[in-house]
Write a structure and sequence with these properties.
The protein has about 475 residues and is an alpha/beta fold. The chain has helices at about 15-20, 30-40, 70-80, 95-110, 125-130, 150-155, 170-185, 200-210, 230, 245-255, 260-270, 290-295, 375-385, 390-400, 405-420, 430-435, 440-445, and strands at about 10, 25-30, 60-65, 85-95, 120, 140, 160-165, 190, 215-225, 280-285, 320-325, 330-335, 345-350, 355, 360-365, 455. The strands form 3 sheets. Strands 15-14-13-9-12-11-10-16 form an 8-stranded mixed sheet. The chain has a 6-stranded parallel sheet with strand order 5-4-3-6-7-8, sandwiched between helices. Helix 7 runs antiparallel to helix 16. It is globular, with a radius of gyration of 23 Å. The structure holds nicotinamide-adenine-dinucleotide.
């Protein structure tokens, strides 16, 4: 009998075994695991028509119902309100009465008058009542991330367009549910990836379109943001910025892989025209050791659920490498616990140029073969020459209304503008799920010893059509 090579076998953790539908602690041949993974990531039969380029009749005033007005949703209330009369908040829902009422109060203050807005609060299911409200065109979901997909699916089933905070899906099944429901109901379903509207990101995108980078070869992107102490806060006081029921920390306790992949990845996907000529093909992921959370835990307030907890699943640094169909590579990182300054890296390499963010620097083949960063004058010239037309048009409004340097305002401006005019969304359901699905795929890869895991093709082959990004249309 042929001697089995130990390296061809992978011992499954209880978690990944469950996910693959196998019994725990069973060693499984690598081939068998790949077969299982391929089945898991294969496309199910379509139940509706593609929603690429989906258009609807213009909506003169977009009537909005918002679910979740905690840290982020409270900010969205102000941003959306600034877009009146093109958009109007008609309903607000939060599981907590105090948050729903605080958001309404904000509307009253901003507009200097009592607004007629329907409030929903009191429990975690009351949002379903709001979504059924007849006079809502668009549901905006700003609840904790694990709630997004099922709320979006239900909203579309109730005949509403829907947008959701990031990430829009946390499992492969959720991602398919979103695609299939959007295709079946023919409703807009967009993820609110605000970073795609950043001034620096859109400038790079415009340079890519004008061939400044030549052939794109690789990118590096990340979410590096030290929020360790904030994740431990257990409080109902909005001033503390505490997350509802410590939901972010809960994810760290339970889950491997990248928990928040889309801020760095969305813009890179646009640079590479993922879904419009290229696609993410597979990834491999590796977590570092976990240390920061359990070392901090005994020093956290004793009233929180994670006081003196010895074990957290998520390593301090999560690394993924993504390969695209065109052979490009993307390093994607997630670290919210190490004491280091905020960064999304935003690095992009091509045959003629290279960019790196934090701080933004550019080098060009035509200038010294790229040995040096452009000096201040030349960098400024490039910024001016290739400023994205959205920013040329919107800079003043973006600066006035703010939100992460104005990108939040531009995101909502474009969303509402496109609905007002009956245009397709800048980002469709396929974009949202392709970027978000990194979370469950990286989890699987980590739990299976960093093996390659293929991305499902949510577009069912349509990614091969080289299309212009909507971010360059109708400006
Ligand atoms: N795009 C960005 O830059 C950005 C920035 C911060 C947060 N986010 C995303 O925004 C979302 C919200 O984050 P946050 O920091 O505001 O969290 P948060 O905990 O402060 O707010 C969530 C709110 O949802 C409410 N809620 C929870 N379950 C609910 C339910 N079933 N029904 C109704 N309301 C419910 C909570 O009461 C809370 O007020 C997350 O998905 C996060 O990833 C995005």
């Amino acid at each position: 009998m042929k001697k089995q090579n130990r390296r061809d076998f992978i011992k499954l953790s209880a978690l990944s075994a469950g996910f693959l539908g196998l019994s725990a602690k069973k060693a499984l041949a690598r081939d068998e695991i790949h077969e299982k993974l391929d089945a898991l990531t294969a496309a199910p039969e379509a139940t509706g028509d593609s929603v690429m380029g989906l258009r609807h009749a213009p909506i003169e005033q977009v009537r909005i119902g918002i679910i979740g007005v905690g840290n982020r949703g409270y900010g969205h209330v102000k941003t959306i309100n600034a877009l009146q009369p093109k958009a109007k908040i008609v309903a607000i829902c939060d599981a907590r009465e105090s948050r729903a009422k605080r958001a309404l109060e904000r509307l009253h203050t901003l507009n200097g008058k009592k607004e007629k807005v329907k409030l929903y609060y009191g429990n975690e299911d009351v949002w379903k009542e709001m979504v059924k409200q007849d006079d809502i065109d668009l549901v905006v979901i700003v609840t904790p991330a694990p709630e997004h997909a099922h709320m979006a699916v239900y909203s579309m089933q109730q005949g509403k367009h829907v947008v959701s905070e990031v990430p829009i899906a946390f499992s492969i099944q959720e991602a398919w549910d979103l695609v299939n429901t959007a295709e079946k109901t023919q409703k807009h379903c967009m993820m609110l990836e605000n970073v795609c509207y950043g001034e620096e990101e859109l400038w790079i995108l415009n340079m890519v379109r004008n061939n400044v980078f030549g052939t794109l070869t690789y990118a590096e992107a990340a979410y590096l943001h030290p929020i360790l102490q904030k994740m431990f806060i257990k409080s109902n006081d909005p001033k503390t910025g505490a997350y509802y029921k410590q939901w972010r920390l809960r994810l760290h306790a339970e889950r491997h892989g990248n928990l928040y992949p889309t801020h760095g990845l969305g813009p890179v996907a646009n640079y590479m025209k993922v879904g419009r000529g290229d696609r993410f093909e597979y990834l491999v992921s590796m977590d570092s050791v976990e240390a920061s959370l359990h070392e901090y835990s005994p020093h956290s307030p004793q009233n929180n659920d994670f006081y003196d907890q010895k074990y957290f699943s998520h390593g301090d640094m999560s690394n993924s490498l993504i390969k695209t169909a065109k052979g490009r590579s993307i390093l994607l990182q997630h670290d919210v616990v190490t004491p280091r300054p905020y960064s999304r890296i935003n690095a992009l390499g091509g045959t003629k140029a290279y960019h790196e963010g934090y701080p933004s620097r550019l080098s060009l083949y035509d200038e010294d073969f790229g040995h040096n960063w452009l000096d201040e004058k030349k960098y400024k010239e490039m910024r001016e020459k290739y400023q994205h037309p959205i920013w040329t048009k919107m800079k003043k409004d973006a600066e006035k209304n703010g939100g992460h340097g104005g990108m939040d305002f531009i995101l909502f401006y474009r969303l509402i503008n496109n609905l007002n005019k009956g245009l397709p969304m800048d980002m469709d359901v396929y974009d949202g799920v392709s970027w978000s699905v990194v979370s469950p795929l990286s989890k699987l890869s980590v739990e299976l010893g960093s093996i390659p895991v293929r991305f499902p093709d949510f577009t069912r082959g349509e990614w091969k059509n080289d299309r212009e990004l909507d971010l360059f249309k109708n400006i």
